[in-house]
Write a structure and sequence with these properties.
Blueprint (H helix, E strand, L loop, with lengths): L1 H5 L4 E9 L3 E3 L3 E2 L1 H9 L7 E6 L2 E6 L1 H9 L4 E9 L10 H5 L8 E2 L1
Parallel strand pairs: 2-5, 3-7, 4-6
Antiparallel strand pairs: 1-6, 4-5
Length: 110
């Protein structure tokens, strides 16, 4: 994937669990049909993909899954997380502020 190619040798992967209120989204919209499909097929049980960097957890893939759990009253989600083993600037850290996103509930359903 992009991260392992671009940051070769700098990132590691772990399986973990996050509280939904720890996640910083990186997209501002989720389509209703995707959310309905996630719920119908119970895809919210699948782990999301995150990047940990400088004390923040950036949601890379799985916005609809995370929103589904949030709407169901859940508080945690399983995740695969990439994290740097050395200090590195990751461009994904700039996206939330550009989109005005701080928390999962800032993502709009369209």
């Amino acid at each position: 994937n992009f991260y392992t190619r671009h940051y070769k040798g700098v990132l590691r992967l772990k399986f973990t669990q996050y509280r939904l209120d720890e996640l910083t989204p990186t997209q501002s919209l989720v389509e209703q049909f995707k959310l309905r499909a996630v719920e119908r097929l119970e895809l919210y049980k699948e782990p999301i993909l995150c990047v940990e960097n400088k004390g923040k957890v950036y949601l890379v893939d799985g916005h609809a899954r995370a929103l589904s759990i949030l709407r169901q009253g859940g508080e945690t989600i399983h995740a695969l997380a990439l994290f740097p083993i050395v200090e590195v600037h990751l461009g994904i850290s700039e996206i939330p502020s550009r989109l005005g996103l701080e928390k999962l509930s800032d993502v709009e359903l369209v």
